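Hey, resending since the last one bounced:
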Amino acid sequence: MKNDILITKPGGLIISEALAIGMCMILAEPLPGQERANANFLARKGAAFKGETTEKVELVLKSLVENPGAIDEMKTKARGLGHPNSSALIAKIILEDLTQDI
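The C-alpha cells again:
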C-alpha cells in the first residue's frame, strides 16, 4: 500500500519521521508553542500544509488529491529537510568523542 499524505498533529517525533521518509503532510490543529512553530516552519518551507480546523484540513486534502504534482513537490521538499540516519550519526559522533580519551 502506498501512502501519499499524512494528516497528523505536528509533534516533533512524528514530524521528524515523516521528513525522514519524505512524506507529504497536512498538520492538523497545532497547539500553541512547539507544535505551531513546527507547522509554521514546514509550511514556509513548502513541506507541509497547515490545517488549523477540520474544514481547512478537508479543503487542503481535496486540493492535494486533485493535484498529484503538488504531493510530489511536497514530498521532495520534505526529503530535503529530513535526516534519515540522524540517530545513528549522533551515536557515532558521541562514541568517537568518548573513545578519543581512551
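The longest helix spans residues 86-100.

Sorry for the duplicate.
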